[in-house]
């Protein structure tokens, strides 16, 4: 599991996630495929923005459950997604 | 018109020696003296109705019991089924729960929205702030301390030995959701936790194709949970506990080597990703992704996954 926060907040996190080609935009975790989600609109949707801040879910957080794809491909995928999202 | 009767397994079932656990999809089983005796005693030990016990589901429970080093384990229909059934088993009206603020969203809804409406008192604290845990537990008689080993999604790593000490000093039970960390990295029961819950949908299954949960812990406590699985109906379907296709089955039918693969992959990644976001280490710095902050306790004394001391797996 890896969680990271991008500059530009939740909306940019969403853009970055949507530019991924290997990582799947889906909830859940622990599978053989890489699953990526933004907690603000999925696993932690029911929390208000203030509650998310209090729970240390930063604005722009992306949650990644790494699958068994080759790590260099995954890293390259995230780098191109970060670049492509501007 | 051909008249007949439904097939009954006892009429044609030959004795077999299956290598893979068979799926016992029969809901009901022939009653005998032992079954009647069990019914009188609460129905926890014999197999005669699948909401109470099922042979296939038992195999899954035994596998996870062994992984967690628990005295007993019982499967549930989902991770939330495990959490809700455990909480409703261990609490009594008016009881007080001190829980981490960093928990899965639906766990949070259960703790903050549902439990108070049912007459329980719930206080949330920062999972990493041991002083806050101590203060909250000391502020009133506490029945349960609830935490995720590795929080969803912050990946804050809870100091389980310290939390066990705080809980037990106050006479409270420590309930730990070990879904993210997995028993491969951390066995909470060995660190003082009283009950471990899992969404077995995740790493324990490893293939995103089964919804399941499990409760592991002391024999007497798991038996009490089993009683509530019966009354709340949160039992696991044997088809979910063990599906025959190569892409769909819980722990028992996955060869251990395959099952370990996603666990190993996840824990290795976690270990290497804690100090610095992999995307930025020594290369370039994509906008907005930078080094990790050091906020957590020192897990190296009990965590198998080489998380560096003083860090959580947070990437800022």
Whole-number radius of gyration of chain A? 12 Å
Question: How are the strands of the biggest sheet of chain B laid out side by side?
Answer: 1-7-6-5-4-2-3
Approximately how much beta-strand content do the residues of chain B carry? 5-15%
| General shape of chain A | globular
- Uncertain spans of chain A: none
Strand numbers in spatial order across the main sheet of chain A: 1-4-3-2
Describe the fold and architecture.
- The complex is a heterodimer of chains A (86) and B (316).
- Chain A contains three helices and four strands.
- With 86 residues, chain A is of the alpha+beta class.
- Chain A has a four-stranded mixed sheet with strand order 1-4-3-2.
- In chain A, α1 (9-18) packs across α3.
- Chain A is globular, with a radius of gyration of 12 Å.
- A seven-stranded mixed sheet of chain B has the order 1-7-6-5-4-2-3, sandwiched between helices.
- By secondary structure, chain B is of the alpha/beta class.
- Chain B has helices spanning 9-12, 33-40, 55-68, 79-90, 105-117, 130-138, 160-169, 182-185, 219-232, 238-241, 256-273, and strands at 72-76, 96-100, 121-125, 144-148, 173-177, 195-199, 213-217, 314-315.
- Chain B is built from eleven helices and eight strands.
- In chain B, α4 packs across α9 and α6 runs parallel beside α7 (160-169).
- Chain A binds chain B through residues 1-8, 12, 28-33, 35, 37, 39, 43-47, 54-58, 60-61, 63, 65-68, 71, 75, 78-79, 82-83, and chain B through 101-106, 108-109, 113, 126, 150, 152-156, 179-180, 182, 201-209, 261-262, 265-266, 269-270, 273, 277-279, 286-289, 313-316.
- β1 (2-5) of chain A pairs parallel with β8 of chain B, so a sheet runs across the interface.
């Amino acid at each position: 599991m890896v969680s990271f926060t991008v500059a530009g907040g939740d909306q940019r996190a969403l853009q970055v996630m949507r530019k991924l080609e290997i990582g799947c935009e889906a909830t859940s975790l622990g599978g053989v495929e890489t699953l990526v989600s933004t907690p603000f609109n999925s696993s932690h949707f029911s929390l208000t923005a203030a509650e998310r801040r209090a729970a240390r879910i930063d604005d722009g957080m992306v949650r990644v459950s790494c699958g068994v794809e080759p790590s260099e491909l995954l890293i390259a995928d995230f780098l191109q997604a970060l670049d492509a999202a501007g | 018109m051909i008249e007949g009767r439904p097939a009954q397994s006892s009429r044609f079932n030959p004795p077999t020696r299956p290598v893979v656990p068979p799926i016992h999809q029969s809901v009901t089983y022939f009653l005998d003296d032992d079954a009647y005796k069990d019914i009188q005693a609460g129905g926890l030990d014999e197999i005669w109705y699948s909401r109470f016990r099922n042979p296939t589901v038992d195999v899954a429970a035994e596998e996870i019991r062994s992984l967690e080093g628990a005295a007993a384990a019982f499967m549930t229909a989902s991770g939330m089924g495990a959490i809700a059934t455990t909480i409703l088993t261990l609490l009594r009206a008016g009881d007080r729960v001190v829980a981490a603020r960093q928990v899965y969203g639906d766990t949070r809804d259960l703790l903050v929205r549902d439990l108070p409406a049912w007459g329980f008192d719930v206080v949330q604290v920062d999972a990493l702030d041991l002083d806050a845990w101590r203060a909250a537990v000391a502020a009133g008689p506490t029945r349960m301390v609830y935490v995720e080993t590795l929080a969803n999604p912050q990946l804050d790593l809870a100091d389980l030995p310290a939390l066990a000490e705080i809980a037990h000093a106050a006479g409270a039970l420590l309930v730990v959701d070990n879904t993210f960390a997995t028993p491969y990295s951390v066995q909470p029961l060995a660190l003082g936790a009283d009950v471990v819950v899992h969404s077995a949908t995740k790493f324990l299954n490893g293939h995103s194709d089964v919804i399941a949960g499990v409760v592991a812990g002391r024999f007497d406590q798991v038996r009490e949970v089993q009683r509530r699985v019966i009354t709340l109906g949160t039992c696991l379907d044997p088809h979910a506990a063990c599906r025959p296709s190569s892409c769909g089955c819980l722990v028992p039918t996955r060869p251990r080597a395959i099952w370990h693969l996603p666990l190993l992959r996840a824990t290795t990644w976690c270990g290497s990703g804690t100090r610095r976001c992999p995307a930025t280490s020594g290369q370039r710095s994509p906008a907005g992704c930078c080094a990790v902050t050091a906020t957590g306790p020192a897990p190296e004394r009990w965590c198998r996954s080489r998380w560096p001391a003083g860090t959580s797996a947070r990437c800022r």
